[in-house]
Amino acid sequence: MLRVGLTGGLASGKSTVAARLAHLGAEIVDADEIVADLYRPGGPDEAAARELFGEAVFDERSGIDRAQLARRIFADPASRRALESRIHPLV
Asked: Fewer CB within 10 Å, N side or C side of the chain?
């Protein structure tokens, strides 16, 4: 079985290529979907975010405020690495 990893920056066409591969019969595993599931309420990424950043990255419904989390981790490389070290092994 051939396995292909599709990577790239924001808006680089990954979703377009993945959709085309799926149309051709490829099975697609989307890491973004996996991460979104891990951030669900009660999920392991939610717990990691709460431990690392407290309530500052949660919205009024106690869900992850992804925009706030992004602002925080992209402004502080050490915070980004800390979160990634917890999330990447799960993905």
From this structure: N
Q: Encode pLDDT of 25-43 as tens digits.
A: 999 999 888 888 888 888 8
pTM for the structure as a whole: 0.68
User: What is the chain's alpha carbon radius of gyration, rounded to the nearest angstrom?
Assistant: 15
CB 49 within 8 A of CB 43: no
**Dihedral angle computed from the Cα positions of residues 39, 42, 44 and 50, in that order, rounded to the nearest 10 degrees:** 80
Whole-angstrom distance, CA of residue 82 vs CA of residue 85: 5
For residue 5, the SS3 value is coil
